[in-house]
Amino acid sequence: MSKQQLEGNHMKIGIIGAGNIGATIARKLAASGHTVKLAGSKGPDDIRDKAAEVGAVPVAAQDAVKDVEAVILSIPFAQIPNVASLFADVPADVVVIDTGNYYPFRDGNIGEIDEGKPESVWSSEQLGRPVVKAFNALLAETLANGGSAKGAANRIAIPVAGDDLHAKAVASELVNETGFDMLDAGDLANSWRQQPGTPAYCTELTLPELRDALSKADKARAPKDRDALIKSFMAETSPLSHQQIVTRNREVTAPK
């Protein structure tokens, strides 16, 4: 499918995860004309009002992957193995987008990732199918309110990594429809460049700035900066503003 065919192509999309990221993506894609099914952790009745508010259909998780062209996973990272069975009969051409991020303080330690395996490579292995890593490198507030029209000056860009060109093209168009430029971040093996603790992660960069940030990512340093940031945020006695969070992310992860 060409880029021209992708643009304006109304898709059937399932989203597993009805938190801030999942629900916001659902709202924006429904507003773009897509048919969106939304699944939460406690079943469809628990999110009925939220789904109605964002323009999605509330469903059980096993129904979110049925009769769709794309599935967006927006759940706590450690929960990914728990949804793997849902994909057993999902056709190979259904695009799966992983928005997750690994935080040991929340997810517990996952040895393979601690030893350097890229997070979305691990996700792909757990699911038994290819994934595209997208929508992971922006704050919920940025996703909700930081988007702008295509071609706008200083439009925020986000990275998209994956091994399948068609799947990346689909993910990229969905990124565009949510209000952000897409930067092709290469294959999944290099998706560590957009993980927590890197200069590209939650720093609200334009396309040229993001390209530079990805190129300057330091694999060994990123987990240390990730943990240092979390420690500093948790030590705050009053909530930081959105801009203060972005600024601190930039300061701590800036290439040295």
Question: Can you walk through the features of this model?
Answer:
There is one protein chain. This protein is an alpha/beta fold. The protein has 13 helices and 8 strands. The protein has helices at residues 3-6, 20-31, 48-54, 61-64, 80-83, 104-107, 111-114, 119-127, 140-145, 165-177, 207-215, 222-235, 242-253, and strands at 12-16, 35-39, 57-58, 70-73, 95-98, 132-133, 157-160, 181-184. It has a 6-stranded parallel beta sheet. Helix 2 links the parallel strand 1 and strand 2. Helix 2 (20-31) packs across helix 3 (48-54) and helix 12 runs antiparallel to helix 13 (242-253). It is globular.
In short:
The protein is an alpha/beta fold.
Biggest beta-sheet profile: 6 strands, parallel
| SS summary, helix count | 13
Return residue spans where pLDDT drops below 50 for at least 5 consecutive residues. Answer: 1-5
- The ordered H/E elements are HEHEHEHEHEHHHEHEHEHHH
Sequence of strands across the biggest β-sheet: 3-2-1-4-5-6
Name the shape in a single word. Answer: globular
Structural class: alpha/beta
CA-CA gap between termini? 42 Å
Average pLDDT confidence is 95
Could you tell me the strand content as a percent range?
5-15%
Question: What gyration radius follows from the Cα positions, in whole Å?
Answer: 17 Å
Number-wise, the strands total 8
Helical proportion, percent range: 25-40%
